Amino acid sequence: MKAPLIKIALFTSVAFIAGCDGNNSYSSFTYEAGALVGGGDFGNSTMNNTMIQTGEKTYVASLANRFAQEVPTTIHFEFNSTRIDAEAAAVLRRQADWIRQFPEVRFRVYGHTDAVGSDSYNYRLGKRRADAVVSFLSRHGISRSRLEAVVSEGETQPLVPTESRERRNRRTVTEVTGFVRRHPTVMDGKYAQIVYRDYVQSAVVATTLTGIEGSVTMGNSQ
Questions:
Q1: Could you say which DSSP state residue 78 is in?
Q2: What Pfam families does the record tag this protein with (predicted)?
Q3: Within a domain: residue 196?
Q4: What burial class does residue 143 get, using C-beta atoms within 10 Å of its C-beta: 0-12 exposed, 13-18 middle, 19+ buried?
């Protein structure tokens, strides 16, 4: 009987040592059932809720980070130009698609220039670039009431510090700035209804009916 007991003791010792190696790894053999499922991050949801309730983390900041992660926020311009080229247009269409998912969120467009030219001229140029972006987004289904007053930074915030022409400095940046209703309660459980409303409206196709009195445009759900 001693031999089997010795083998069991040796097996248990090896398993314990394997569970306490230098990599701090563990196994279900040495830890409680279900320890491997949680991954050690169970408290993140509680921490997130606490930060929201205390104001340490805001809905606006969360949406701004998500916007910056999921779509490009910046487009660039040719020298002394406000024209939106094909590359910039593709980026702005992606921005518009993202913005339409959140009909209660406001955005702001910041215009920038490089350092060539006077301060006053570059300020006006930055404003015109921001205006061009707002006009483009409004043509792609974004209400101007959701695009807050555009801001021109002129040449004051270069990405590349140089006095020469620099395309990377000639840009606009789109950012999340707040909520249409000015209060984060629009993000409560009813927010799904807001998104669903926008989803249903996106499926309405304009249909023109022609008759004796003329033509009438009607919404037609597909």
A1: -
A2: OmpA
A3: no
A4: exposed
Q: What is the CATH number of the domain that holds 93?
A: 3.30.1330.60
Asked if residue 105 belongs to a domain, the reply is yes
| Measured distance CA(171)–CA(82) in Å, rounded | 10
CA–CA distance, 128 with 106 (Å, rounded to integer)? 20
In the chain, the number of structural domains is 1
> Token pair of 163, please?
């006095």
What does the alpha-carbon distance between residue 71 and residue 65 come to, in Å, rounded to a whole number? Answer: 10
Digit-coded pLDDT (tens) for 72-88: 999 999 999 999 999 99
- Tens of pLDDT, residue by residue over 169-186, are 999 999 998 876 554 445
Length of the chain as a residue count: 222
